[in-house]
């Protein structure tokens, strides 16, 4: 696999948006070039959706995002429509670009050694590999990439949530806390009402006894 400081291999691949996309199209930008195994699989779907959510923040930081797999353009287009993706997907059916970047090789699956796509991400800037993310773990990856771009471009994006996961988690946390508070208040009111009713019933019982 390529390492930081290496010259970035050029590429010219067909895009799901029509036409071809090449490395030179991103001159002056920090290109996020990520390789993934297959369209419409759980991990690849989460990764693509995370980069879609992060795209505007990445672009604001001076970057761009492109996903690459060996899937066909038809598969890419279906993937885009089904998962509402907003990033460019490139088709590399002969794996030439995968191999040039070292994103194809031996890995372990279900305890067996096989050859396949090595999920990895490269940030290319000024024609060189500026950052490498090997053996990518999908969850939180888009945030880590944006932080890296912030450092490379001086955009101040470091540490900002990009995938929306942090915001969603915070919202859920707030919602849970609010719900818990509401439940507690309702329980308190119900308890008071029950006590008040019991007190009234006891008072009536005492009154009947006196009669």
User: Per CATH, which architecture of the largest domain?
Assistant: 3-Layer(aba) Sandwich
CATH fold group of the largest domain = Glutaredoxin
The percent range for helix content is 40-55%
Cα Rg: 27 Å
Q: If helices are DSSP runs of H or I spanning 4 or more residues, what is the number of helices?
A: 5
CATH homologous superfamily placement of the largest domain: Glutaredoxin
- Subunit arrangement of the protein: single chain
Looking at the structure, what is the overall shape?
globular
Q: Strands of the largest sheet, in order across it?
A: 2-1-5-4-3-8-9
Class by SSE composition = alpha+beta
CATH class group of the largest domain: Alpha Beta
**What ranges have pLDDT less than 50 throughout 5 or more consecutive residues?**
157-163, 165-180
Task: Compose a concise summary of this entry.
The chain is α+β, with helices and mostly antiparallel strands and 211 residues long. It has helices spanning 42-60, 73-83, 96-101, 141-153, 165-210, and strands at 12-15, 20-22, 30-35, 63-69, 88-91, 104-109, 112-117, 120-125, 128-133.
General description of the model:
- With 211 residues, the protein is an alpha+beta fold.
- The protein has 2 domains: 12-163, Glutaredoxin, CATH 3.40.30; 165-211.
- It has helices at 42-60, 73-83, 96-101, 141-153, 165-210, and strands at 12-15, 20-22, 30-35, 63-69, 88-91, 104-109, 112-117, 120-125, 128-133.
- The strands form 2 sheets. Strands 2-1-5-4-3-8-9 form a 7-stranded mixed β-sheet. Strands 6-7 form a two-stranded antiparallel ribbon.
- Strand 1 (12-15) and strand 2 (20-22) form a beta hairpin.
- The model is unreliable at 157-163 and 165-180 (pLDDT under 50).
């Amino acid at each position: 696999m390529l390492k930081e400081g290496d010259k970035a291999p050029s590429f010219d691949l067909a895009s799901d948006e029509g036409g071809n996309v090449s490395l030179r199209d991103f001159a002056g930008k920090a290109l996020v070039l990520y390789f993934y195994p297959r369209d419409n699989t759980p991990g690849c779907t989460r990764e693509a959706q995370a980069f879609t959510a992060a795209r505007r923040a990445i672009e604001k930081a001076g970057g761009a995002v492109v996903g690459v797999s060996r899937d066909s353009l038809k598969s890419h287009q279906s993937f885009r429509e089904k998962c509402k993706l907003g990033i460019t997907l490139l088709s590399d059916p002969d794996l030439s670009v995968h191999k040039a970047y070292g994103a194809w090789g031996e890995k372990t699956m279900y305890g067996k050694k096989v050859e396949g796509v090595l999920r990895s991400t490269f940030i290319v800037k000024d024609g060189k590999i500026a950052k490498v993310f090997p053996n990518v773990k999908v969850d939180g990856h888009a945030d880590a990439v944006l932080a890296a771009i912030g450092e490379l471009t001086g955009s101040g994006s470091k540490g900002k949530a990009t995938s929306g996961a942090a915001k969603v988690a915070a919202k859920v946390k707030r919602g849970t806390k609010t719900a818990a508070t509401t439940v507690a208040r309702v329980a308190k009111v119900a308890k008071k009402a029950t006590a008040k009713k019991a007190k009234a019933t006891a008072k009536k019982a005492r009154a009947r006894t006196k009669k």
